[in-house]
Amino acid sequence: MKTLLATILSFLILALASCPLLVLGTSSVPEPLLDVNGNKVESTLQYHIVSAIWGPGGGGVSLHGGRNGYCPLDVIQLPSAIQWGKKLILSPYDNSTIVRESTDLNLRFVGLLSGSKQCNELPLWKVDNYDASSGRWFITTGGLDGHPGAETLLNWFKLEKTNLPGAYKIVHCPSVCESCVKLCSSVGRFSFEDGVRRLVLVRDDEPAFPVVLIPARERSTSV
Ligand SMILES: *[C@@H]1O[C@H](CO)[C@@H](O)[C@H](O)[C@H]1NC(C)=O
């Protein structure tokens, strides 16, 4: 009996002792996203998503009338580097305040849409149905925020580091549903027939859209 107890105890001690090692070895919390000033990106603040490459090809992201009529609105890149586009909120699937790399996020524009026509939908990024005529998956808006799972699969985007210092690429490769069949691609740009540069999922051999995050309002500490 004593030896049995001793065996159990030593097993427990061994198990407990190896626990911290296991935790250290397997859990790696992704790094926080950093804005252009090097500050941690927070889900309570607003940002512009702007091309990391300045000059021609530059410009921030905004909304534009959809391909088949006005609604739903598509996510586009503005043509000029001095246009930063509409403000956005980045909301991690787990509601954490610090927004991290390689973590599923809702990307949602804030504020009222300009123009008289409004779409009766959230300005929340979403991968649209496959567009057979152009052979593309466009990034459009609409759908439900939060509720990570099968029914919101197309609403999640991650930001990943690129080779350009301080720049990220946007990726749609959701982890919010382990058992789901899913798309897994970077977000790039595609000039649609109307000449507007729309955001789409790109093939592995096509360039992703390198972006930086510019805070919408400078922090009050800079007074
Ligand atoms: C995140 O917030 C929403 C809305 O308040 C809530 O329904 C959900 O349970 C939260 N999720 C987590 C992982 O805390």
* Quaternary assembly: single chain
Determine the N-to-C terminus distance.
Answer: 72 Å
At the first level of CATH, the class is Mainly Beta
The shape is globular
Please outline the major beta sheet. 6 strands, antiparallel
Annotated CATH topology: Trefoil (Acidic Fibroblast Growth Factor, subunit A)
Bound molecules: 2-acetamido-2-deoxy-beta-D-glucopyranose
Keywords: Signal
Organism: Citrus unshiu
Pfam families: Kunitz_legume
Signal peptide: 1-25
Q: What do you see in this structure?
A:
This protein is mainly beta and 223 residues long. It has a single domain (31-218), classed as Trefoil (Acidic Fibroblast Growth Factor, subunit A) (Trefoil), CATH 2.80.10.50. It is 11% helix and 29% strand. The protein is built from one helix and twelve strands. It has one helix at 2-26, and strands at residues 47-51, 61-64, 74-77, 88-92, 105-109, 125-131, 136-141, 158-161, 168-172, 185-191, 197-202, 210-215. Strands 1, 8, 9, 10, 11 and 12 form a six-stranded antiparallel beta sheet that branches. Strands 2-3 form a two-stranded antiparallel ribbon. A two-stranded antiparallel sheet has the order 4-5. Strand 8 (158-161) and strand 9 (168-172) form a beta hairpin. The longest helix is centred in the first third of the chain and has 25 residues, at 2-26. The radius of gyration is 21 Å and the shape is globular. The termini are far apart. 30% of the residues are buried. 2-acetamido-2-deoxy-beta-D-glucopyranose binds at residues 94-95, 146. 2-acetamido-2-deoxy-beta-D-glucopyranose is lined by residues 94-95, 146. Keywords: Signal. InterPro entries: Kunitz_inhibitor_STI-like_sf (IPR011065), Prot_inh_Kunz-lg (IPR002160). Pfam families: Kunitz_legume. GO terms for molecular function: endopeptidase inhibitor activity. This is Miraculin-like protein 2.
